[in-house]
Amino acid sequence: MDLNLVGKRVLLTAGAGGIGLEMAQAFVREGACVRICDADAKAVAALSLRADGIRGTVCDVSDRSAVESFVADAVAELGGVDILINNAGIGGPTASLDHVDAKDWQRVIEVNLLGTFHVTQCALPHLKKSPGASIIMMSALAGRLGYANRSAYSASKWALIGLAKTLAIELGGDGIRVNAILPGGVDGERMQAVLQGRAQVSGRTLEEEAQAAMRNQSIKKLVQPREVAALACFLASEHAASISGQALPVDGDTQSI
User: Fold this and answer.
1) Active-site entry in 141, 153, 165, 244
2) DSSP secondary structure letters along the chain
3) Has 147 been annotated as catalytic?
4) Coiled coil located at which positions (predicted)?
5) Which CATH superfamily is 9-185+223-245 part of?
6) Which of 123, 119, 27, 23 is nearest to 80 (CA)?
7) Would you kindly state where each structural domain of the chain is located, as residue ranges?
8) 43-90: per-residue pLDDT in tens?
9) How far, in Å, CA of 72 to CA of 69, rounded?
């Protein structure tokens, strides 16, 4: 399928590693021009060694002034923005609500939700100038199911779906589509850290937690980053021109966490 993304201008947060980098590479393969930001300075520096044209800026999305600079610089370089992917987020504490430090809880909201607000608000004037612009919010499985001992993370991911659906209504008249992607357990270092956190709380071994993670999942395997990237490219393409306000899971049909 020809996605016709050649020349599309993409801003992507947390794009120097993991799912973010996978998405950045996928868009570049489709001919798009991609600029990313990431809070990991070493990962951003490593992008300069790559030959695929992905360039990055160190930016904590919870810092409004840093976001303003990132968006302004990227727009000046690209000449505008057609696609925004809000991928930045942190997992936060793994503990029951009565044992979570308020500052740790607040930090998750600052990055996952307020950070998405900052980036989207700064990018909107430029997206409105693009014919057929698209915004993608990276929510999670925890954005459609309760997630014991991960209250801040789950609350922020549910909020992103509400934000996506609301913006789809607000921006539809401007021709801007807004959707959310909800990955389940994605193969990689981050998922291993999640399983380790669960093991610490439950007292089970890491292997037992890995097996438990598949218990309520119809397709008994972790999601591959490339699968998430493929969906993002499709949603940003003209083939999804009538898809907006949707929350699309990529989780192997998980029924509970």
Assistant:
1) 153
2) -----TT-EEEEES-SSHHHHHHHHHHHHTT-EEEEEES-HHHHHHHTT-SS--EEEE--TT-HHHHHHHHHHHHHHHTS-SEEEE--------B-GGG--HHHHHHHHIIIIIHHHHHHHHHHHHHTTSTT-EEEEE--GGGTS--TTBHHHHHHHHHHHHHHHHHHHHHGGGT-EEEEEEE-SBSSHHHHHHHHHHHHHH---HHHHHHHHTTTBSS-SPBPHHHHHHHHHHHHSGGGTT--S-EEEESSSB---
3) no
4) none
5) NAD(P)-binding Rossmann-like Domain (3.40.50.720)
6) 123
7) 9-185+223-245, 188-222
8) 999 987 776 889 999 999 999 999 999 999 999 999 999 999 999 999
9) 5
Q: What is the pLDDT of residue 209?
A: 81
Tokens, residue 256? 């509970």
Return the residue matching tokens 């909800």. 182
Is this model's pTM higher than 0.90 or not?
A: yes
pLDDT tens across 148-207, in order?
Answer: 999 999 999 999 999 999 999 999 999 999 999 999 988 887 778 777 877 887 889 888
